[in-house]
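Person: At home tonight, work slowly through the protein below, taking as long as you need, and write a paragraph about the fold.
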Amino acid sequence: MTDNELQNIRDNIKEEITKTEALINEYKEGAQPIAPKNSIGRISRMDAINNKSITEAALQNAELKLSRLKNMLPRVGNEDFGKCAKCKREIPLMRILLMPQSRFCVNCAR
């Protein structure tokens, strides 16, 4: 990869980290416990509890993504960067730009 492509990847990862951190903050607000004294109806309360569990799952996924992004950033430029961790083939640049946290090519990620 060229220096320009590597810098583009670094910038992309930093941007994704910023977006993911903001998303995590939003999810944390939405995953707050639902106080039983809130005067909402039974159905609305069940819906709020369901939404909370969905938000908690999204929070876990976002935290995992953030961890992988932060782990990937210092690896940009290493000799094994951009190679699939399983088959060792080159990962296409567009995949790296779309999913910089991924360590696998499309075939191995399935």
Summary: The longest helix spans residues 42-72.
